[in-house]
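Lecture 7 notes: from sequence to structure.
We start with the chain below.
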Amino acid sequence: MIKPRVVDLSIIIISTNEGYFLKSCLQSIYDSKPNVSFETVVVNNCSDDNTVDILETDFPAVNVISNERKLGFSANNNQAIKRSGGRYILILNSDIVVLLGSLESMVGFMEEHPEAGIAGCKLLNPDYSLQYSCRKFSTLATFFLRGLHFDTLFPNSTMLRKYMMSDWDHNQVREVDWVMGSCMMVRRKAIEEVGMLDENFILYFEDQDWCYRMWKHGWKVHYVPQAQMIHYYPRRSAKGIFNALTWIHIRSMFYFFKKHYLQFPLCADREVGGFLAGEKEKSL
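Predicted structure tokens for the same chain:
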């Protein structure tokens, strides 16, 4: 296999019949004209829409990986990471529009903060309202309220506000437990130490797991609001409790808690990084 050239940033996007979003996403990347060297890698996850035509006609410079069978989120991103050459990796959903200056802001932040293993940007809804994209680690209680969509019945829940971090100013940089994998910049050096995405997660919780492992290995996770992007973010498991995606979400939740021996904590009152630092000290 040809060794990839080293660039500042590798942008990885997965498309599974998401040609409409993919075209807007890629166009926004190139329109932003980032002042960093970058490459774009698209994983075509067995799409049967117009994804191939879009890539061949409009974006011939994109590096394309074409799957022979459908893979999950973690497996798709891992194969692209292995084929990429960036010092930083940006995992990006196809339903994101990159706003001007955001890519430079994120790379610049990582350069200035060598302790940062992962950084997430400020995500906005299509109407430019705030989208809560950084959160406390999940608990059994927050999963059943949020993950199974009972949050609409308890919109003012103190527990959910704490989990969603909705009561603080999202215009400030801060350390957070985890950021959504829809836009997540990761330092390659941290990946080499912590490991890649866990492919036992087909979908959901893989981003939380990665951030958790970063904290355990001494890397920090940051929210960087200077970088802003629009995210269309359909909650795909929200269409009824008993659809297939909801069951995948439940499976991922059980695996996450079992993997990290969390024994289904019922409240999220720990400080970011605090219990993990204590946990690491005990293991030394």
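Points to note: The chain has one domain: 7-137+168-235. Residues 263-284 have pLDDT under 50 and may be disordered.
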